[in-house]
Amino acid sequence: MFGMIRDEWLLNRRAWLGSYAGSLGSLALADLLVRSSAEAAEGKRHPAETGKGRAKAVICLFQHGGPSQMDLFDPKPDLNKYSGMPYPAGEVEAHFDKEKGNVLGSPYKFQKQGECGMELCELLPHLGGIADDLTLIRSMNTESVDHEAALRLIHSGKIFAGLPVWGSWVNYALGTANENLPGYVVLSDPKGLPVDGDKNWSAGFLPAITQGTMFRSGSSPVHNLTLPEGVSADRRRGQLDFLEALNRRHLAKYPESTELAARLRNFEIAARMQSAVPEVADLSGETAETRALYGLDNPATAEYGARCLLARRLVEKGVRFVQLVHNGQPWDTHSKNADSLKSLCAMSDQPSAALVTDLKQRGLLDSTIVIWTGEFGRLPVSQGTDGRDHNRHAFSLWVAGGGFKRGYVHGGTDDFAYKSVDKVVTVHDLHATLLDTLGLDHRKLTFPHEGREASLSDAEVTGAQIVPELLA
Fold first, then answer.
1. Torsional class of 264: left (φ above 0), alpha (ψ -120 to 50), beta (otherwise)
2. Global pTM?
């Protein structure tokens, strides 16, 4: 008998360890599930909510690889003046140091756009058409010249793997405004995943339910969402109800199992998504004018345009954070920089501008942040004959809507766009400012992890600050 008691004790001990070892950060999941439904319905706020935010949602058009700031957003006459000559301002920090060349001029012209006179590359005519709606930040910098580390930093605020990303933090604080859809959706490239794969939308130590849900292109955006052939809706409902009853019985026996609570929540969301996802993903009801705006009839822009249009439809339905990602890292122009930029802009310029225009026409731009960014920039010197290597010291990005200042250029770089020197904005400052426009205090949006209150901006360590000049 003693042996039987001992075996039962060991089993319970193993169950306890299995539930908690390495996952203490999930202890708040049950509270999250309550807050995301009942409390949200009652208007209760997360402790980080300030009640002062203008934005309700974010659409991130992420450009994997590191777009060239001096060829697209940051004109520098000295690049062409010294093109082909040794770099005159000392040394540059190259990722592939032995491949450093002479100064590489930009082959494209810049033009002043809009009433604000924002200078943009000729490859971006559609973006130029909405210049008066943009905040262009020319003075970004980051901490790593390596793709993976830089991707982690701009997504999670840290260079280490496995941490929660910005979309998960927003989802954790605000939840979805539509119980039939996830709070955080990733619109993947049909050709494949980006560098670092699904780590780009990881929940890390936050509750698993806050991670990004990937939607694929095509008629079946989410795996295993459609009913198997021969299974009716009533039969499936009966299966789910029976499974839920078993799970809830088990949860009552082991109330400390927050993973099971998350699984129950996921089943409930998945059941509701069976009707909600096909409806929101069906673009056939959009007008001919809208389809033309996004370039859906042009092979060069059709795929990216469809994803930008779907992003608009998702935020209309209450999704808090939508992120578009690329296959691999197409903006990583180590060779054929000019040709690559030409094709990439032909693919993305019209749909990106269309998204901002469409949101504005529908009265959604004030409540939606659109951000276009990569993980770092490029160097002013050549790699090989016609490429540019990585640069962590300067890059450009643009933001529209959500309370950001319109028709505004912020900060600047040196004469070769190598280093940000004026009104420098760090990745952590960007995070703090984005959260502020969403009505979230970046210092109070925390979660207990490894004995401390972890956060996206980690202001006590990074010195992250809101940048008031960026805001209207």
1. alpha
2. 0.86
